[in-house]
Amino acid sequence: MRIRDLLKLKPFQAKRARPLTRTDSVSFEAFCNDSPPEKYPEPEITESSLIGDYKFSPAKLDDGGEGEYASMPRTRHTSRGTNKSIHPSLPTILLVIVLSAVFIILPIVYLLNCFDMVYKHNSRRYVTNIKEADHYGPSNLVRQQFLDAPRKESRLIKIKSLPYPPKPDYNQCKSLTEAEKFDCFPDAGANAEDCETRGCCWIPAKTKPKDANVPLNIPYCFYPANYNTYNYINVTESGFGLVAFLRRSYRTAYPEDIHVLKMIVKYETETRLHIKMVDPVNSRFEPAYPEVPIVDRAAINLSYSFKIDVLRPGFKVIRKADNVTIFDANNFINMIYSNQFLQISTKLPSQYIYGLGEHQSNLLLSTDWNRFTLFNHDAIPQFNKNLYGSHPFYLSVENSSNSHGVFLLNSNAMDIILQPTPAITFRPVGGILDFYFFMGPTPSDVIGQYTELIGRPHMPPYWGLGFHLCRFGYKTLNETRKVMQRNINAGIPLDTQWNDLDYMNNSNDFTYDKENFNGLPGFVKDLHSNGMHYIPLIDPGVSASEVPGTYPPYDTGIKMDIFVKNSTGQPFIGKVWNKASTVWPDFTHPRTVDYWTLMLKNMHEQIPFDGAWIDMNEPSNFLSGSFTGCPKSSLESPPYFPAVDGGVINYKTMCMSAKHYGGLHYNIHNLYGFTEAIVTSFALAEIRDTRPMIISRSTFPGHGHYAGHWSGDIWSAWADMRYTIPQLLSFSLFGIPLMGADICGFNGNTTQSLCNRWMQLGAFYPFSRNHNTDDGIDQDPVAMGEQVVASSKKALNVRYSLLPYLYTLFYRAHVFGETVARPLFFDFTGDPETYFIDTQFLWGAALMIVPVLEESKSEVMAYLPSGVWYDFYTKSEIRSKGQTFNLSAPLDTIPLLMRGGYILPQQAPKQTTSESRKTKVQLLIASDENGTASGEFYWDDGDSLNCYEEKRYSLVSFELDSNVLRSFIVYLGPDIPPNLGSVTVLGIQKPVTEVMVNDLAQAFKFDTVHKYLVVDKLDVPFSKPIVVSWK
């Protein structure tokens, strides 16, 4: 089911439609997608992947036997102008019979022999839509088998058992360096006999570990060189790229090996390659979200080559411009494709790799035998633990400073291994191998290409970029109001008040405690009258133990039959915050859209909230499974067990055998929070008719198109504060720019010194919220004392003054897929020193944030890439040749640096964004060494849906050159920004004697010490070009 099918209401489709800028001519049968045929009609003529026999195409191979498949002229069938009756001759009839025998009968006989189709049995594997198998069937016989099968049951064809692999040649084994060894026994309990049964080398380390299990390090059991896995048996070019079939030579150690694979290669755009490896006989689970484009025609002017040698296994993806191999499938040396264990490795062109979240780690990932487990999980963040989201995407910076990205579209639990080769190994426990490659060549290009595929980040409401206040433990409305008001009285800018589940009645969704939170609706209306907003917590779990007829969220859900089911078809029952038991809505079910919208609408009619905080949606469960555990099966105990926290795959979540409309929980688990975000975004847009403001704990690729994220239940500790920066920057790579951490920490008690520095850093999280647990001390700024109040006011006033710039960065993320908060190497890829830095970061290209991350420090070391930089506060100039500087950092100050060559729009900070938006625009200009600078300013009403798409915005660009500043109207819509009020220009080397604004003399100030010019008291509209010059 696609998103467009799930969300049936047409008004919302008009509002929320994501314009596709890719190929819109698609073939439903050419590729595995479940979009409705009427949405994607079959073209006049389609070169389907189903066409073609099992023959090589030698004409397409070069002299070396290596094929580079690119676009070639193809003939089109056209209708003739005449319709003559032709009587075939006898030789023609004989020729047709011979050709039929060669090209139809023989391939069918071949398939019958290959797959032993005489014996069949039903599979217990859950299949979402059996007709998906049509797209991969190599013959009409296979196609008919699936058409005759039940909807949620596939027909497996029994394959003849494969032979065991030969024993390893230890001369080959000893020829491999330690870095070249790929683990052949990733399971526990490796030993020499079992290792050699797999055909692998057993050479244990000289020093044995204390643990009986083989550590994640140089493997004892590893693949010999030229280990035989899958070999090509057919390669055929198609209209979108090529289709290849591969056959396995020997059995693996995992049950239900898939003997024949189909590899579909699509040249989707000039910079995006798609390689999909599927079982051509049996349907396997594929995530329906994110909704990716379907392409059935190869792009031209490709920036990459896809190379294979049909006589050797493996493939390579090469960037044409520099001939760098960005993905080398390593001769498929360790490739496995079984029912519940898939594995593929590639050598990396460098050791510089980023992404693979969600984890607490450095930004630059270590390739020294490092494992990242992806399986959404409710846990306190710490190293080497799977956390709330799964993002099997990485960005690599090559030694040449070019970049590329790789995305595996797979929602199953997986381990990803990095090793010193350098190389990466993917090990999902289900689904298919579905890779996308992004050629860059810059890091920003890669993220733009990635978000073009998975969905551009949503445009948040302007007020969502203000400061937010919350805690778990506001036991009453009076306490909520008291804490909020004391911070407002202290002058802390504040836009949104939040409540954790304290406001609920018995911790039940869609209710509020009419005793302890009596007057909540009136409180929210008062917030609105003061230009503020309100966001409550909404967990996915619904109480299943209320008196029948007293709790509509449960009664209605049962009536609509939309709750996740257990293996027997009854609602799956677990336990979270509800007093006795919990059921969960199935967000892949079409009726859940109506259910969730109705529940939120009923709640909104009582409490006119402005956004949704969706938590506990990994999904989290206080039980491991249900009250009686989980049924024993390979779903709960897969043949390969990823290194998930808790030691069992259903630890603190649902049973893997639980059933969703879209498939088994085994496959759906990592999609649960993402699908909730999709449905919640739709519901809020319908209810409020304004931009949804949603913050979710669980995420998956594409999540940023609908919602933001926060980093969960981190500790109040200096180390945790430090690691929020690489986590923030990683989510920028994942296309989720609206991200932040609980300022001052969630778990444990913060300290004044920690909260002081964390409030400064948190003022520059794109999503800025102070929040903590119910058993901790109060940690709002006022509660932490005068020093924290002073620091918070200073940092947040800077944030609010820069909101026009920050909002413009979100516009560029929404339209072009650019990052908002970004690592230094994004803008200084030619400087390898920046590859390791994750204690400083940038807002866009123009502003560097250098937080203090150690206690009792009043200065901080900062690396400044080559160029001109300016202290944000003093406006003094710093020229760097790529050096480290010691920056002053008094207790109330976070060092900020402006980069020469950029123009930032600003407004005066006020108590709320509503007030700040009414002030005049200010321009802060940092000239580079040549006295030039540029920038832009995006403006809309800050809250309406689809302002950019419906051209209800204004965009102004600026250029500084030769002492002249000019504005250019890129687009002028109905929403025009406030007038220009002031201009500040940094880096003017000579004293200024005259300033002209639109040819009129203007008063000014010039600082001869720090060499900057201030032209204020202006009132110039942006509806016409503006020219400011000086001598």
SSE arrangement:
Layout: H1 3-6, H2 10-16, E1 66-68, H3 90-115, E2 120-122, H4 140-147, E3 155-157, H5 170-175, H6 192-197, E4 201-202, E5 221-222, E6 230-237, E7 241-248, E8 260-267, E9 272-278, E10 304-309, E11 316-319, E12 324-328, E13 336-337, E14 342-347, E15 352-357, E16 370-374, E17 391-397, E18 403-408, E19 414-419, E20 423-428, E21 433-438, H7 443-454, E22 467-469, H8 477-489, E23 496-499, H9 520-529, E24 533-536, E25 542-543, H10 552-560, E26 582-583, H11 590-606, E27 612-614, E28 659-660, E29 663-664, H12 665-668, H13 672-688, E30 694-696, E31 708-710, H14 718-733, E32 739-740, E33 742-743, H15 752-762, E34 768-770, H16 786-801, H17 803-816, E35 821-822, E36 841-843, E37 847-849, E38 859-864, E39 867-871, E40 877-880, E41 883-888, E42 896-899, E43 902-907, H18 913-916, E44 921-926, E45 933-939, E46 954-961, E47 964-972, E48 980-986, E49 995-997, E50 1000-1001, E51 1005-1007, E52 1012-1015, E53 1027-1030
Parallel strand pairs: 22-23, 22-34, 23-24, 27-30, 30-31, 31-32, 33-34, 44-48
Antiparallel strand pairs: 1-10, 2-3, 4-5, 6-7, 7-8, 8-9, 9-21, 10-11, 11-12, 13-14, 14-20, 15-17, 16-19, 17-18, 18-21, 19-20, 25-26, 28-29, 35-36, 36-37, 37-42, 38-41, 39-40, 39-42, 43-44, 45-46, 46-47, 47-53, 48-52, 49-50, 49-53, 51-52
Family: Belongs to the glycosyl hydrolase 31 family.
Pfam family, one: Glyco_hydro_31_2nd
Protein name: P-type domain-containing protein
